[in-house]
Amino acid sequence: MDLGLKNKRALVLGASRGLGAAIAQGLAKEGATVVAAARSRDKIEAWARDLPAGAGSVEAHELDLSDHAAIDDLADRLLADGGVDILVNNTGGPPPSTAVDARRSDWIANFETMAANIFHLTGRLLPAMRERKWGRILTVTSSGVEQPIPVLALSNGIRSAIVGWSKTLATEVARDGVTVNILMPGRIHTQRVVELDTAAASRSGKPVEEVSAAAAETIPMGRYGDPEEFANMAVFLASERASYVTGTKVRIDGGATRSV
């Protein structure tokens, strides 16, 4: 299937590792021109060197999503060159916390980085998509927006707000040929999940291998997902072929979420 991504221009946030890197690589392999942004430019350049011949170009850009001025600078640069066709909003997760223990300052700081700043960046890049009558906006959240995850109160709450924003935006821009969708990863084997398992092991006093094995047993497929499996869905939703899919939440979790 030709996904129609050749010569499309994509901005992928959080692209130095994990899900962001996998999505950026997947888009590049389909021929898209990718602007890969993250705090660690070196890590982006390292994986970009390993892309197969014929892949689209990758431009590594250093970006801290807590730096509002840097976000506007990136938007200015992209818009000066015509903007982007595809935007993948992907942010790091907040530290583990219970709802009882989360402080006001925790909520404000993490909402700024995880939500408010991507809302702002999307708003900057959206007009060019609407003018071209084509665009794809994907935002990576978590399965916790449907089935809240214990000790991840900050993530559950902030990412749920992002879902509300995404659905509202999808309705507003659908007639302009711009689709807006949410990707919900379950236990995908990334560094972030390793960090969460390590934190859980520390709290419980169990070996991290035991914690990971127990978590895998709760997944109907009996294993963690591979980042490439997650990225495959993202690449499809970013493509020409997904032109009638908008305002949705898509799970990539091996069946772990229990609700229908």
Sequence stretches where pLDDT stays below 50 over 5 or more residues: none
Q: What is the string of SSEs from the N terminus onward?
A: EHEHEHEHEHEHHHE
Structural class, judged by helices and strands?
A: alpha/beta
CATH superfamily name of the largest domain? NAD(P)-binding Rossmann-like Domain
- Which outline best applies? globular
Strand-residue fraction? 5-15%
Residue share in helix: 40-55%
Total number of distinct structural domains: 2
Give the strand order of the largest sheet, numbering strands 1, 2, ... along the chain: 3-2-1-4-5-6-7
Mean pLDDT: 96
Number of DSSP helical runs? 8
Report the major sheet. Answer: 7 strands, parallel
Count of beta strands: 7
Output the radius of gyration.
18 Å
Name of the top-level CATH class of the largest domain: Alpha Beta
What does this protein look like?
This protein has helices at residues 18-29, 41-48, 68-80, 104-132, 153-173, 191-204, 208-217, 227-237, and strands at residues 9-13, 33-38, 58-62, 86-89, 135-140, 178-185, 249-252. It folds into two domains: 9-188 and 231-252, NAD(P)-binding Rossmann-like Domain (Rossmann fold, 3-Layer(aba) Sandwich); 189-224, no CATH class. A seven-stranded parallel β-sheet has the order 3-2-1-4-5-6-7, with helices on both faces. Helix content is 45%, strand content 15%. The protein contains eight helices and seven strands, in the order E-H-E-H-E-H-E-H-E-H-E-H-H-H-E. The chain is an alpha/beta fold and 260 residues long.
